[in-house]
Amino acid sequence: MSFEELGECELGTQEYWDKLYKTEISNFRNHKDVGEVWFGEDIADRIVRWMNKNVPKESVIVDLGCGNGMLLVDLFNGGFKNLNGIDYSEDAVVLAKEVSDHCGTSTEYFVKDILKDNLGEEHYDVVLDKGTYDAISLTSDARHSRETYIDNVHKCLKDDGLLVITSCNWTKDELCTQFEDKFKIFDVIPTPQFKFGGKIGSVVSSVVFKKNIIL
């Protein structure tokens, strides 16, 4: 399958996210508004339900580009305790820590950039991504950034580790093509569908990949 790069956009810049999370920190401190839930609460609920059915509670989990951390709050409330969140925006991590404290959950948060920082070799059982790969796909050097992301996620996962990735920019088939060298498809999390012109499609793709062991 061939596909075109999406093109550069402000959502692919750290400046955009720093500005957004500065505003959301203020809103949370003043009104206890946690801010936007990326892709909506329904998608987050579907991911959590899938995790509850398919992933052991003791698994070591990291959310890449955790934002306000609400996905990890939901997972903590579902019984997962070995949770980590990383984001390259320091303001996002500040917000996530404050939201976590407010919700009474216990999660480790770190300021890290998946494209630049070492996340640990074979450290995680599950990597979660809800929109971060989308943002990386909108950077000025998207192809190289996507390849670096795939390599780094592969390195930080344990053997047979899982990547749960949710995207509104790429279809399931496009994701499978982009990840096929390092990952194999494990499952697809159903997402809401729409029908237009007699064709059925999804607004959001949510795919679970398993790490390929490369000798």
Automatic annotation (TrEMBL):
It is an enzyme of class 2 (transferase). Keywords: Cytoplasm, Methyltransferase, S-adenosyl-L-methionine, Transferase. Coiled coil: none annotated. Residues 58-184 form the Methyltransferase domain. CDD domains: AdoMet_MTases (cd02440). One of its GO terms (cellular component) is cytoplasm. Pfam families: Methyltransf_31 (PF13847). One of its GO terms (molecular function) is protein-lysine N-methyltransferase activity. Its EC number is 2.1.1.-. It is found in: Cytoplasm. One of its GO terms (biological process) is methylation. InterPro entries: Efm4/METTL10, Methyltranfer_dom, SAM-dependent_MTases_sf. Its main location: cytoplasm. It comes from the Eukaryota. Belongs to the class I-like SAM-binding methyltransferase superfamily. EFM4 family. S-adenosyl-L-methionine-dependent protein-lysine N-methyltransferase that methylates elongation factor 1-alpha. HAMAP family: Methyltr_EFM4 (MF_03188). This is Protein-lysine N-methyltransferase ILUMI_22216.
